[in-house]
User: What shape does this take?
Amino acid sequence: MNGYTPIMNSISGKMINVVEIRIKYLGSSDITGLNGKVKIIGTTNYQGGKINGNLTIEDTLKSTSYVTYTVNGTITNNGTIIGNMSIKVNGDIINNGVWKPYYTYLEGSSPQTITLTTGKVFDCNFFSYNTTKVTANSDLVINGFMNIQSGLLDMNGYTPIMNSISGKMINVVEMRIKDLIS
Assistant: This one.
């Protein structure tokens, strides 16, 4: 897009079969209907939306009013996600930056993984209603709560760290933790 913004003016307006979209700045936009690999490389104050494909945040994804954002693929955060928003993820989560939406929903119908870079935290509340299995690929440091209502949370030998007063695991039906005490 070379720094320009795609404007989809109809209700059904969407981009289909796009190999990669690099969004430099959207201002205050709705990014519904993007299909393919999407990379946010500038500050984006979005008004909600859905991406059918993988999403990489290289800079800032923020919201000043409550919105919901759905990613039907893997989300990789190398920058900052912040604001009064819900992020619904149907793929894996990889966080190498600041992860601070209000809610993160694990909604995959197949197993999902969560990866957190050492020294980083998930500063949000997690919910999972439909996921069959969530596997940690690293220690999980969470400033908030994790509510897994169905499925399995497999810590895969890593440590769950709940940092805040409200930091707790709720409704975890089954959690596998091994080698925490030697």
Remarks:
- Residues 1-5, 7-21, 23-30, 177-182 have pLDDT under 50 and may be disordered.
- The two ends are 54 Å apart (CA to CA).
